[in-house]
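Q: what does this look like with thiamine diphosphate bound?
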Amino acid sequence: MTTSLVRRQALNTELGRLERMLEIRAVEESIQTLYNDGHVRGSTHLANGQEAVSVGIASVLRPTDVVTCTYRGHAAALALGVSPEGVLGEICGRVIGCSGGMGGSMHLMDASVGLMPTFAIVGAGLPVAAGVALAAKLKKNDSVALTIFGDGSTNIGAFHETLNMASIFKLPIIFVIENNLYGEYTRINLSTPISDLADRADSYAMRKEIVDGQDIDAVIKSISAAVDFARAGNGPSLIEAKTYRFSGHSRADPATYRTPGELDEWKKRDPLDIAAAKLIKQGDLTEKDLEELKSTIGVRVAKAIEVVLASEGPSLDSLLQHVSASRK
Amino acid sequence: MTTSLVRRQALNTELGRLERMLEIRAVEESIQTLYNDGHVRGSTHLANGQEAVSVGIASVLRPTDVVTCTYRGHAAALALGVSPEGVLGEICGRVIGCSGGMGGSMHLMDASVGLMPTFAIVGAGLPVAAGVALAAKLKKNDSVALTIFGDGSTNIGAFHETLNMASIFKLPIIFVIENNLYGEYTRINLSTPISDLADRADSYAMRKEIVDGQDIDAVIKSISAAVDFARAGNGPSLIEAKTYRFSGHSRADPATYRTPGELDEWKKRDPLDIAAAKLIKQGDLTEKDLEELKSTIGVRVAKAIEVVLASEGPSLDSLLQHVSASRK
Amino acid sequence: MTVMRTRQAVIQALSDELESDPTVFLMGEDIGSGGPFKATEGLIEKFGEERVIDTPISEMAFLGAGVGAAAMGMRPVVEMMFIEFIGVALDQLTTQGAFYRYLSRGAYEVPLTIRAAAGAGLGFGCQHSQILDQWFRGNAGISLVIPSSPQSMYGLLRSAIRSNDPVVVLEHKALYGERGEVVTGEAGIIPIGKANVVSQGTDVTIVAIGSTVHTARAAMESQSEWSAEIIDLQTLIPWDKETVMKSVAKTGRLVVVEESSYSGGWGTEISSEVVSQLWGQLKAPPHRITSPDAPIPYAQELEKRYLPSPEYVVSQITALLKTGKCPAPWWEGFKS
Amino acid sequence: MTVMRTRQAVIQALSDELESDPTVFLMGEDIGSGGPFKATEGLIEKFGEERVIDTPISEMAFLGAGVGAAAMGMRPVVEMMFIEFIGVALDQLTTQGAFYRYLSRGAYEVPLTIRAAAGAGLGFGCQHSQILDQWFRGNAGISLVIPSSPQSMYGLLRSAIRSNDPVVVLEHKALYGERGEVVTGEAGIIPIGKANVVSQGTDVTIVAIGSTVHTARAAMESQSEWSAEIIDLQTLIPWDKETVMKSVAKTGRLVVVEESSYSGGWGTEISSEVVSQLWGQLKAPPHRITSPDAPIPYAQELEKRYLPSPEYVVSQITALLKTGKCPAPWWEGFKS
Ligand SMILES: Cc1ncc(C[n+]2csc(CCOP(=O)(O)OP(=O)(O)O)c2C)c(N)n1
Ligand SMILES: Cc1ncc(C[n+]2csc(CCOP(=O)(O)OP(=O)(O)O)c2C)c(N)n1
Ligand SMILES: [Mg+2]
Ligand SMILES: [Mg+2]
């Protein structure tokens, strides 16, 4: 199996990035079946429709940079380099899962590519990312921290405190709002009285940008600028990626609360289609290539599922290991 | 002894308001002596220099409106109507204290004039005030809630969450920042990257205003407008009163961290002098009247101290009373 | 008497209180849609948006708003969705709301109910599966209940709402789907602070709460060597000392079955108190059967093993009865 | 060996760790100015603003930043000023930082120290005087220490900073001004998890921590009817079972002296464990001497009465020895 680091390098090309987005979609689509067959427990949160944000971020950051991300973390994990086996294995509670089967869908991690265990508490990843950035600053290396969170999370106290502190400390950190218009079953306008969340940066005299989250090239451009700004010691940025999730909030959610027609409109701007269309237009890909790519990925994901389902759960001693350093 | 409600009515006149400000100054100035004599324990936080904000607020609100305030609450308590005996009694831990001697300087209260127990945790009074406003809204009465807090408190999560929620729910609440330029020993510019804190209202699409906190008339005008706005069902306001505290943060603080010359500059704008000068200019007061007023107040406060020092501490059963309704 | 699921008992209790008391209202994230466990389903349709209030994701703000509204004479029922979420807002309950009565010498009461899903067993991982009763201990202003059945959910939740102090109601997520008969109305109300003796027995008193009531019952029913008096505490803070003492005085033995970790578990309080009150009357040392000292694992087999199972309870109690000593927990053998 | 105050021992420990380990840094509100207890005085002058970092009033942000920096290999020492303030930020420690090691299978460690002033006695009122150890219980990822002397402050704080897990250090504010001899350097370091036997005795083992070590000692020294083995736990989580068991096996009697309320107190854990391990070897029931179930009052006489006094400890222990039963607490007579 290729390592996460090698998988990360594959994002260096446009085709590699398209491929990763297609893979993410395929992996996430397989989860419902795994769930129906009783392999997945608790809650899972799909990011389909939002793949360009994760893959865009992952293709800009270095593996030595660190990302904190939410329970809606499959896409980020796969983008950063975790294998389909690592993600699906975790969701199915197998020892080959990226957290050894101990975390589940909401807690994916891979230290080799800078993914801290994903955060199941809204807003919790922001202060931690600030600490990561602070460590980089104190160590005087040029790593950056990047934290991904949703529109709804901009109403939690940790958002406010962290942005203010990051600004005062001029931390090398990028705050990325994936504004998918909903926090659970609540449309953003019902929870937040402003429409451009990036404007909240003004309260902290922070650099801000709004970006089309469906267009991976736009995402890359915006993240790159923020990362360069941070690496150069100029401090944090707040980036709002306007995007949409095609599924419900979590496994059990039929998303009946959507504004009528909204989903269809957004599906017209599927980030996978946009990226593929661009490659086709450039002459770097044919429709046939694309179909082949999809089917290759389908096979790869199917194999990953086979591997996962044939693999073991964590052993009983895992339960008592890594609880603390002092008390084994 | 006059009741808190009657004392509140005294704020209906300009002279009454000046008198109250002078009283607050005198009461606060007496605390150091009480402390030196061993009557005051823990921490106390003076508001001298900021009297116009409290008295301005108290003269606009109705006694049926509710205020939440911080540990720096002597001025607000006296302004709202608590007697010098009530405040000094509390600070000295006597049963005649406004919280029965059970709270101390940081926990003053008087339900008869709408003062909830003051809050010793930064930011804690904001959500509670929002709940008060929500209750008024649900009960469909026209009461408002008003919460007073400092510049430093605008960096705590509760500030952000509460302003957002108040805006979305259109709550009848007024958020008053007493921007005295310091949070403990830290100047505002070292903790907050913007200079007009009222601008943070923009993140919540909230009505905002900056007011000269040394000029009681300006305070009254600004608070009145916000209160009218709230009573009419139009929602919350954020008001930033620019002010200054003449003492250190708390009892033990010599305030050596001040920008040189700053204190002297602000002392030129003592809210008591400004209010007195105006009355003198209007011909409603002579210098001699003012001296007499000060000395009357001095005598009154001295009497209050006598009463307090001659009074009992709370009885031992107070310790076990009012702990819970169910478990006596 | 109606058969309903525990989550329906939540809805019924809320509905009955909303109906009978105009000061009651609900507040929380997505409670209008019923929430992740459908435990508030249908209420917004019935009572409207003024009494079933969806909030932004701002636990500090809306928990605190519950405190403030309660102090003004309302009876808010605030949902925390998962009890872990109160970790970003605990101050408002424990350091503010719980102390107003005391600080105001009774002038401000805080009749606030906090509902939250709690407990392990469904694969929600370590940040969505704890009980966290310890966060509410040592604070005499707060009560805490953990219902074990549709009936006790109904009865305790109604009492919580009627209480004049803050009450935390931990709704075990593994029990939401369980069915049982429920007496509704006044007759179905269960007072806070009263335990329920689930079974009469002679050899041992088993004290349990929430999910472990079922574990204890299954343990007892699976064997015939010993008979147990199972006590469902129902209220953990303050717990019913009288009922527990009466039972242990009779059986001479106490076993506490707890879902959380051994260290810091609530059972220490039961065990400690029983010994100080019944010294000289016990036939064996009080024994605690708990989960190990570890976060809650996701993998199904491990999560199952993490929780005390009926078989484990049987083996522990049988060993206790046989040896008169506290048997070692299963994980002792695994320690390095 | 130097004589210093407890607050100076804090400064010395921080200074020594800052000096010897470049990954150590301090973070908190106004720590540059020394804070309300002058417990970080002079450090910013010595180590500069990069290693002594003043923060905005944002506990969630800077506690979380401590977690994140620790996960990156730094050793942050985060000050909460008063332990109550962690009520607005608890999530970052208990639900995040404490679980990373577990969730990452050891890839991320969190060598984070949290210092906070705690405890009653100085008239700070109910929101600035608690111990709140309960918030950290039942979470095997966290340790908690409560020093009782300048030496243990020095030794435990250094160990906390060197620990590879989060450690909470509760600094009793009534002890900051106390003086004592301190061995500094490696020889002065006290391991986490080890209790200190303060006095040898035969009639009873008194388990205490922080302020109550002094109460226990004063109680013992004020009478000659009985002799006590006083154990200063030093670390509350995880506590030193071995030392306690050894002592109680010898004396046959356990008394725990706690500063916080009776219900939910940490002493239940000691008492419960002692009974299960030493069943049959005890001459009397374990007994807990605590504060009553109430918020901490401001008025001096009441706050004094709230805390267990040496005289009260004497009367309780004397009664226990005489009757072989747990005596009722003083407040029983006051109950309605
Ligand atoms: C503190 C906290 N409150 C509530 C929740 C429950 N919750 C999980 S996801 C979610 C919605 C978050 O919305 P958003 O930030 O927009 O992210 P999205 O799910 O859309 O990616 C909520 C309320 C939580 N996990 N943590
Ligand atoms: C959550 C919390 N953090 C820290 C403190 C300690 N503290 C008390 S007052 C204060 C400064 C507050 O400054 P500001 O909001 O400007 O109000 P001011 O004191 O100037 O009136 C701080 C940090 C606290 N009480 N609560
Ligand atoms: Mg969203
Ligand atoms: Mg200030």
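The domain at 2-188 of chain C is CATH 3.40.50.970 (Rossmann fold). Chain C touches chain D through 51 residues (CB under 8 Å).
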